[in-house]
Every structure is written in structure tokens, then in C-alpha cells.
Amino acid sequence: MIVCSLGCAVLFTLGGCRKPELSTVASVEASAEPSLSQSTSPPSSPAPQLNYEFTAEPKYKSEPFYCKIAIGPDREKIFVTAVDFLDQIVYVDLNANGDLTEEGEWFELVEGSTFQDTRYFSAIIPEVQQGEDLHTNLKIKYGKTGNEVKGVFSMQLWGWDESTTDADLVTLKLSRQVADIPLIHFNGPLTMGTYRTVTEMPRGSDFVFYSLVGTPGSDGGTLTAIANNNIPDDAHPMVEFEFPNIDSQKPVIKVKSFLNVRC
Questions:
Q1: pLDDT by residue (tens digit) across 42-68?
Q2: Residue 169 has pLDDT above 50, yes or no
Q3: Which of 4-8, 42-46, 106-110, 246-250 has the highest mean pLDDT?
Q4: I want to staple 20 with a disulfide (CB 3.0 to 4.6 A). Which of 14, 82, 161, 238 is the partner?
Q5: Where in the chain are the domains?
Q6: DSSP per-residue letters across 37-82
Q7: Cβ contact 156:166 at 8 Å
Q8: Which residues pair with 81 in a beta bridge?
Q9: CA-to-CA distance for 217 and 90, rounded, in angstroms?
């Protein structure tokens, strides 16, 4: 049995910083062989057009890890965060002028629990201004394992209901190299993605397929997904699975289903 869950699953495009026009009928084809080798990660957004240049950086106590955040359909606002774990500070270039030393642009990093070899930290940036729009509660969670750091980002966007954009479902690997800073994209053009990469679908077993709608980042791994309450109740996209036939001379077996369950 295949259960198709609509975590957020409909194909449409965001036309501005406000809520998008939503189409209520869409389809996506997904290959679902018993053993899958391909990745189901969302496609990447084009590389950022703006080369971010620092005009000033603080004196870090440890080598920082960087992440770039874009907001808006055309990435109208792009700014950088830099986290210093030894000093337990997150620097956020909120006015996007390249200066990370300005007053009001550093925030306390709070250390949380440790699980196995990973230490967890978090920070909250109360407000992010984008033109006339004021976004709130940019939450950043870090997981540090040795010299590798991954980040999880969420933010309450102006004009959307409740907490509407969330990169929780896929973590982003941060960079120590300015030239390779990864980008996550909030409130951008929307596309369909999947939650939990499909690796196999054993015959005779139950299978749950989760789908999301959001904006992919430049690294090809992140998807800032919008919340269910922003998807029309009557939006039920169709997904088609293809299974190899036990008889290789016969056509593949196709199964269609609608994403009619909300997480």
C-alpha cells in the first residue's frame, strides 16, 4: 500500500513578497522502483547573482562558519550570517552592507544539548527588514560535529499565516570559505520537493510518500518549505510511481495516486 502525504505539495510560482496565487491542480511524476539509487533532493536555485563582499568583519575568537540568506522572488535581499562558536556569537549582516561589526547585528548563541558527538546551539534574530516588509523570528539551530557544522533555519514571513517557512526538513552544511558560502532562499519561486529521500520500496510493504512545496537553495540540498495552512484545502496534486515489471518484456507498472493527506 502506498500512502501519499501532502506535507505541502502543489506546484505553483510566487509572484511577489505577498501570498502567491495558488493553482489547485498540478501533477508530478516520481519514479519509484523497489530499489532506488537516484536522489530525490529538490533542484537548485540558480547561483546567486550578487557576489557578497565584506567591508568589515569582527575579530573572531574561532574560525567562523558562514551562511547566506536570500529573501524574495528575485532575492531582493541577500545577507550573510557568521557564527563564532568559541565566543558563542552569531553575526548577522541585517542591512546587507557587508559590515558585520555594526551595533545590533550580533546575537547570543545558546548551547543546548549534546547528542552522541554533536553539540547543538541556537540563536534568534527578532526582526529582518526587507524593504517595507518586516519579517520576524529568524531562528537558527546549529549542529556541530567536529569541524562540520550544519544549520537549520526558520522564519515568520510578513503576510503569511503562522510560521510559514522552515528549512527544518533538510539541514544546510555551513562553510568556512567566503567563496563557497551556501545560500538558503526564503519567499522565493516555489517548486515541489520530497521529504526523506526514497531509497527503496520493498514489494508487499507499506510505503509513505511525503511531498513539500518550497524554495530550493543554491546547494541543491535545502528546501525552505511553506506550512500546510497556506495550501488550499482542495489542492490535491497527482503523483505517478513506476515499478519494473517482473517480466522484463512487459511495460513498467504505473500507479497513480493523489496527495490527499496532510501532515
A1: 444 444 444 678 899 999 999 999 999
A2: no
A3: 106-110
A4: 14
A5: 2-262
A6: -S--PPPPPPPPSS----SB----SS--EEEEEEESTT--EEEEEE
A7: no
A8: 67, 92
A9: 21
Give the number of residues written for the chain: 263
Quote the cell numbers at residue 19.
Answer: 501570498
State the cell numbers at 255.
500507479
Show the cell assigned to 155. Answer: 522564519
Contact partners, residue 240, CB within 8 Å, separation at least 6: 27, 28, 29, 30, 254, 255, 256
Report the distance separating Cα 39 and Cα 46, nearest Å. 19
Contacts of 115 (CB under 8 A, 6+ apart): none
Grid cell listed for 204: 508487499
What's the whole-model pTM score?
0.72
For 73-105, give one letter per residue: b (16+ CB within 10 A) or e: bebebbbbbbbbbebebbbbbbebeeebeeeeb
Is the pLDDT confidence value at 140 over 70?
yes
Lookup: cell for 178: 567566503
